[in-house]
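agent: user wants the full assembly modeled, not chains individually. Plan: 1) parse entity lines 2) check alphabet per entity 3) run joint structure prediction 4) return tokens. Steps 1-2 passed, two entities, 851 residues total. Proceeding.
--- entities ---
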Amino acid sequence: MNIYVLLKKTFDTEEKIAVTNGEIDSDGVEYIINPYDEYAVEEAIKQRDAHGGEVTVVTVGDEDSEKQLRTALAMGADKAVLINTEDDLEDGDQFTTAKILEAYLEDKEADLILAGNVAIDEASGQVGPRLAERLGIACVTTITGLEIDGDLAKIDKDVEGDVEKLEVNLPLLVTCQQGLNDPRYPSLPGIMKAKKKPLEELEIDDLDLEEDDLEPKTKTVDIFLPPEKEAGRVLEGEIADQVKELVSLLRNEKKVL
Amino acid sequence: MGETKEKLFKGGAFLIEDLNGDDILTPEDFTEEHKMIAKTTDDFVSGEVLPVVDKLENHEFEYSVDLLKKAGELGLLGADVPEEYGGLGLDKTSSSLITEKFSRAGGFSITHGAHVGIGSLPIVFFGNDAQKQKYLPKLATGELIAAYALTEPGSGSDALGAKTTAVLNEAGTHYILNGEKQWITNSAFADVFVVYAKIDGEHFSAFIVEREFPGVSTGAEEKKMGIKSSSTRTLILQDAEVPVENLLGEKGKGHKIAFNILNVGRYKLAIGGVGGSKHGIEVATKYVNQRKQFGTAISSFSLTQEKLATMAARTYANESAVYRTVGLFEQRMGALTDEQLKDGREIAKAIAEYQIECSMNKFSATECLDYVVDEAVQMHGGYGFMQEYEVERMYRDSRINRIFEGTNEINRLIVPGTLLKKAMKGELPLLQKAQGLQEELMMMMPEEPGTEALEQEKYLLKNAKKIILFAAGLAAQKYMQKIENEQEILVNLADMVSDVYNMEAAILRTEKAIQKTGEQKNKQKLLYTQVYVQETFNLVEANAKEILIAVESGDSLRMMLSSLRKLTRYTPINVIAKKREIAAKIIEAEKYVV
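--- prediction returned ---
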């Protein structure tokens, strides 16, 4: 099976977000594989081990994204592709990324493409579905189970806590939800082997794309942090009075009712 | 090869050599693979070990065995085992990083360390091919678990005083071992013990003893102050039958194995000390950021900041120093031929060259850890005394580090003792250097160091080295061979030498980083170095003074003290301000940062 994984690097979950001059401060920040993409890598490796074939991990990013690709290779992926847009693109959004990935994947005859449900940074969840649309293949988001039999994929899809059971034909793009699997740690032999696995670096030029084709469809107007959590208030007195007070506060002070 | 060899430094040579950043390994030199190995270990500890710490602390050792097997699957037990015997044969930096990252696992780090270090390495270094074939592949996967049995009720630091005996049976097929080995880590579940016994009551030798051999048993689990997650029992050998082919190394040469393994055990404990110190800083910082008193987080008090900064500066110096030593091993092993590298004894020899460095790292880093966890408890106030808080366990777990693998007192005595031996044998021209110094000091005019980054610190370092030679020279002149009876002076010297090693490691590391990425990006390193070097230089001065006063008297003492003053005159920096700057970064990041 010809399996592709879409991978993005994100801030380590331990990092604190700071905004300086209207931009998120990335100075000295540690990056990880987007945790949902880790489920995708793990699932790809499992499917390959069960059905044969090859796993290629693809990222659209910069030079530093190589680290996360190497980690995926150390987990067991076979090949990695870094589409480096650092020098060519100033800005990009989900449209940009999906378009680049389309250009890369259109002639690859992928049987299965796996992505994370969302990235934990911007959490749009758009790149996977947009790409499937562009490639003209089926797409199932938030999967928690995947069993492949010939050309047929039997899928468990998380629907707000319930499970929907689906059967879909390959080729297929899925986005992975927590609960799908338990991503493995890259083993030490895996890490040493990853050094020798192929990591191809491309630029948009190599995909016959130009900056104008990739102009984002969205514009970031402002970036700000959520307001700091204020101290709570404990209401006192008879229960009936407390309820009245609560309702009045919600209506008048917080204006949520 | 020729070129590499010229670059090799002898153990202890740093006292008389001038080095620069390229001569030492620093954490900034770690490769991507090193970092990935560290991350896998770190993730394994947080994902697998920490969730079951309470069970481990409760002596539910089936979890220890299970964790070791899982670690084995990831390759975390095979770093020091050669590839041809089922291991990974990684460099010493990799295995050191694994050790550092395991330190957060409390007593389980001792379980892991005893298995991969003192348990497996005697076979890696001194086993013959058959022994390696038989044991190493299974030790590398965790299918077999190893332990090391040297200490006896009557012989601790005096290991050669062991009473356990081995006698060849009449058929000549087995050694019959009798005796008791005390405080054996991993003994509840270990399958293989490296045991020392005297053949015919006189030839001190090592044996590979399997748990299943007839006559082998273990005593009750010890009740310990800390590292409760690790198993500690007595190994009982009662007419234990050990096949002759399980004699490890040569008959009567057990002391060689013991000596080499001690060095390994020591530098590994030092690395664990550094990892534990970093973790201690993190735990303390998170707490003081969240704990409010008088309406404000206690991290905003400058006294809290002073504590964090001192902990971190000391950790930085020790981190620099232990990886400096690991770099020395790498350099020496890098100069070995492929053939030599296959011979475990050559690797043991490469490590043993740095016996002084191993001992210094051991006592310095374990005392750094003890200091850090003590302050971390203090910053927790009453909560630090409560078992619900991790810091309480860290405090108890830390204490043993100053005792095992040679008490810190024994390790201190090794430093001047070994230096003196090297000087006598002509390996290090320490005596010659010391002789010229007294006259030089009479004539010397104090210098004023420049104001560029690190110039003051380098000046202090240069003078600290002279102070050591000066004080040691005087003591050696006065006591000659009998200096070994003057343990107080020897220990002062050990501290001074260790201080110089750490100061230099911090300076060179910071210098190397600045050369690579500029001063702006390495401000924290520079601050650590400035604070550590000044505070430590003052300790060197105090120790030297004590030696001079013990050795000299009257006019001669006054003269010597005035010579010392020439070396200790400098314009100090304001460490209070520097420490506030250091702490600001740590408080923001909520962990040790460089």
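agent: reporting back. Helices of chain A lie at 35-51, 66-75, 94-105, 127-135, 188-194, 239-253. The CA atoms of residues 83 and 202 of chain A lie 5 Å apart.
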